[in-house]
Specification:
The chain has 151 residues and is an alpha+beta fold. The protein has a single domain, classed as Roll (Thiol Ester Dehydrase, Chain A). It is built from two helices and nine strands, in the order E-E-E-E-H-E-E-E-E-E-H. Strands 1-2-3-7-8-9-5 form a seven-stranded antiparallel beta sheet, covered by helices on one side. A hairpin with a 2-residue loop joins strand 7 and strand 8.
């Protein structure tokens, strides 16, 4: 597959929650994705058209989802469901990001076992690091997710 590529085929998301646009790089341990703050974020923009830094957690989680979905597709499986379990020390240099801001996420797997993964992530804007944190995720199957939600 030639990169950069559309990230959507690797995520089980639909608008308005499809936030990560481009898969820029990927390997067994890491992923790099990009997005642009624009009308796709409309329900989540403030009165000035800016996106709160709180949303960075979801942008990172979706980038990790792209990593997992790409590996699923390479193994001949459809992209499976996943959940954000937690976040540690997510810090942002800015309280919000203006309309038009291009954000680049670099996430590296720290550990993965039994579907639970921990990823160190950094977000860059114009080459400068603007946020960083560690996210814990859980990748499951659609069937198992249905079971969990019925309980």
């Amino acid at each position: 597959m030639e990169l950069p590529a559309n990230a959507a085929p690797f995520l089980p998301h639909a608008p308005p929650m499809l936030w990560v646009r481009t898969l820029c790089g990927i390997d067994a341990e890491s992923v790099t994705c990009e997005t642009v703050v624009d009308d796709a974020f409309a329900p989540f923009l403030d009165a000035d058209g800016a996106l709160s830094s709180v949303a960075l957690m979801e942008i990172i989680a979706q980038s990790i989802g792209v990593w997992a979905g790409w590996h699923d597709k390479m193994a001949g499986r459809p992209a499976q469901s996943g959940m954000l379990l937690g976040c540690r020390q997510l810090r942002s240099a800015k309280p919000s990001f203006a309309y038009g801001a291009r954000l680049r996420v670099e996430a590296r797997k720290l550990v993965e076992q039994n579907g639970v993964g921990s990823f160190d992530a950094r977000i860059f804007q114009d080459g400068a690091e603007v946020a960083a944190g560690t996210l814990t995720t859980y990748q499951t199957t659609w069937e198992h997710l249905d079971e969990l939600l019925q309980r």
